[in-house]
């Protein structure tokens, strides 16, 4: 009963904040906007076993609307700080003025570590040479951080449907001698990119590309059709109450890909990370759910649902333990 009571309180609090946010005249950064979204995130961060699929239709609708508002607010926040950063001679040297920059540093480190673990099974030190980021936005921090600190020789192709977002983003790297030569920006709907997708070793799909799961699955199917066989797809998802903020991607949504790992951070990094490999043979094939393919052997409990590992603060360390135990068995 305690858990049900906590979930009821959670839903009630989230709905209360949603109604306040929905009445705002604008979602551009302001004291009211910042306060309400900070309150919302604070409520949704703690671990929760809430199952979004069991919520009543009116709450499902509220959640969908809230995800849309969160996406709009995030876009406004990024555009505001991208514009501000562009006033510096070299914007890349001042990225820390963005209030969530440290979160991006942590998330990018996490994604790089996961990518390194799974990128190549034949060449342990291999790194991707061409990376695409779909839904890069006006402040493409993931691409910038990965290019600056982790994939220092790789080229990054950033795709966004919004010309103004790409215009702001490209100004940030224009004055940087290194990044200006390795980062490119394309204004187009990724659905219109076909053979060009075969050029990328890794494709990142932003959390807010496809505000609802039907739109996101449409994009995933397109990527499954046109990405190079064996290429890596990295997606951002959400878990627990954080699913009030971002769409959830389940493994069954990734037809044409082999899901390699799913990580659920439980610190201030909001997004879960899903890494999958494009099927090298048949896009339409359904390989099912094989724990051995996910590298965790036979120790995964029968209650495991698509290997939803609860990674407490150091998910990669936990995965190391799981894999080592599997090898011992």
Description:
The protein has an 8-stranded mixed sheet with strand order 3-2-1-4-5-7-6-8. By secondary structure, the protein is α/β, with parallel strands linked by helices. It has helices spanning 2-22, 31-44, 57-85, 101-118, 141-150, 163-173, 179-182, 213-226, 315-328; strands spanning 130-134, 155-160, 183-187, 202-205, 232-237, 257-264, 272-278, 309-310. One of its GO terms (molecular function) is nicotianamine synthase activity. Keywords: S-adenosyl-L-methionine, Transferase. Its EC number is 2.5.1.43. Synthesizes nicotianamine, a polyamine which serves as a sensor for the physiological iron status within the plant, and/or might be involved in the transport of iron.
Topology overview:
Elements: H1 2-22, H2 31-44, H3 57-85, H4 101-118, E1 130-134, H5 141-150, E2 155-160, H6 163-173, H7 179-182, E3 183-187, E4 202-205, H8 213-226, E5 232-237, E6 257-264, E7 272-278, E8 309-310, H9 315-328
Parallel strand pairs: 1-2, 1-4, 2-3, 4-5, 6-8
Antiparallel strand pairs: 5-7, 6-7
Helix pairs in contact: 1-2, 1-3, 3-6, 4-5
Pick out its properties.
eight-stranded mixed sheet, disordered C terminus, EC 2.5.1.43, Nicotianamine synthase, SAM-dependent_MTases_sf, S-adenosyl-L-methionine, nicotianamine synthase activity, alpha/beta, 329 residues, Rossmann fold
